[in-house]
Amino acid sequence: MRATVGDQLVQHGRVVGQHDKVGEIVEVLGEKGNPPYRVRFEDGHEGVCSPGPDTEIRHKDTTPG
């Protein structure tokens, strides 16, 4: 799993009715885009995450427009 600053980290809900938790990667702490990542979530909380199998990286759009 590789990411860059500005990508979204999505932690999928683990049980029925639990919403996904979405945050923006504000710092990549690993080498060459690898975890851990410093993430700022929608509620303003910021933390360091090492994503597990229930996590997805959504890369920011790099298409000029």
From TrEMBL:
InterPro entries xref list: DUF1918
Occurrences of domain DUF1918 (ranges): 1-57
Annotated region (Disordered), positions in chain: 36-65
Alphabetical list of Gene3D superfamilies matching this protein: Domain of unknown function DUF1918 (2.30.30.440)
Bias-annotated ranges (Basic and acidic residues): 55-65
Name recorded for this polypeptide: DUF1918 domain-containing protein
Lineage: Bacteria, Bacillati, Actinomycetota, Actinomycetes, Kitasatosporales
